[in-house]
Amino acid sequence: MRPLRHLWRGRAGDPAPSRMAYRMQRFWLTPVYRAAVRVGLPVFAVVLGVGLWFHDADNRQRLADLAAHLRDEVAGRPEFAVRLMAIDGASPVVAEAIREVAPVRLPASSFEIDLDAVRAAVAELDAVAAVDVRIRAGGILQVDVAERVPAVVWRGPGGIDLLDNGGRRVAALATRAARPDLPLIAGEGADAAVPEALALVAAAGPVADRLRGLVRVGERRWDVVLADAARGDQTILLPERGAVTALELVLALDAAQDLFARDLVSIDVRNIHRPTLRLRGQAVEELARIRSLEWGTPLPGGVGQ
Question: What are the CA-CA distances from residue 240 to residues 234, 253, 271 (Å)?
Answer without folding.
Answer: 19, 20, 10
